[in-house]
Amino acid sequence: MMITSTDEELIVDGIPVGARLHQPSGSAKSTAPVVLHVHGGCFVGGSAAEADGIARLIAEAGAHVLSADYPLAPRHPFPQALEHLFMVLKMLDRLRGRIGRRSSRLVVAGEEAGGNLAAALALVTRDRQGPQLAGQILVGPMLDPCLGTRSLRMADAGPVGCCWADGWDAYLGAPERAAHPYAAPSNASRLGGVAPALLVTAADDPMRDECQAYAERLRQAGVPARQEEFAAPTGWPSSLRAPSLTAAPFADRLRESFVEFFKSIVPTPRRSAAAAGA
Length: 278
Hints:
Blueprint: E1 3-12, E2 15-24, E3 34-38, H1 53-60, E4 64-68, H2 80-99, E5 106-111, H3 113-127, E6 135-139, H4 150-154, H5 163-172, E7 197-202, H6 208-220, E8 225-230, H7 251-265, H8 273-277
Parallel strand pairs: 3-4, 3-5, 5-6, 6-7, 7-8
Antiparallel strand pairs: 1-2, 2-4
Helix pairs in contact: 2-3
């Protein structure tokens, strides 16, 4: 499927924000979901323009995808990025009719640090009673600042120079913020009522264990949570930011995972009586 990508500039709280809109070429407006995509980069790097591989795959799965920049740590520690993205999400909710249709379902998605922020947005929208989300897509999400899982130890990042440890430190700003469920969704004591989730990880993904644990906790809370694990090697999470992501060996399966998830959260359009009798 051909995708049209256009650079956009949003005005959020009076501040220009870079964004990129990905849409299937030539497609009429439809009930396809409208997705806010949040890029990775350990909370301290990346942009909507530089790391749009996941956003394009989601668009190829049949969605309108807006990937937006957000203020980066350490200059902007928690909760600044999250509050910024919440304002972007509310703006996207108002613009659904221009991007897709007003009836289009709203979804959040992200990889690595972006997966953290997408999961946090699902918690925030539940607690603030909107905008209503139909789903959340978390790809290798950074959810646990303790960095004590087996999958992270196997990554052999080491205690010094670990990009994820450094990223968490910059994002949190203060150790006590690690206890806040919006900063570290793995610490949330109440997960019931959040949007249905697709959680994707890989055998060689350092965030594999925390992703699996979060999926299980969502299910225990009564939240529909699909979980997939890709075989190694994938090179996640760095390969998720590669410009050639859509041509990666795992790209087709990842795209299909998004397709199946959308089928589970977007109702099948009813055929009119005239169409049914044609």
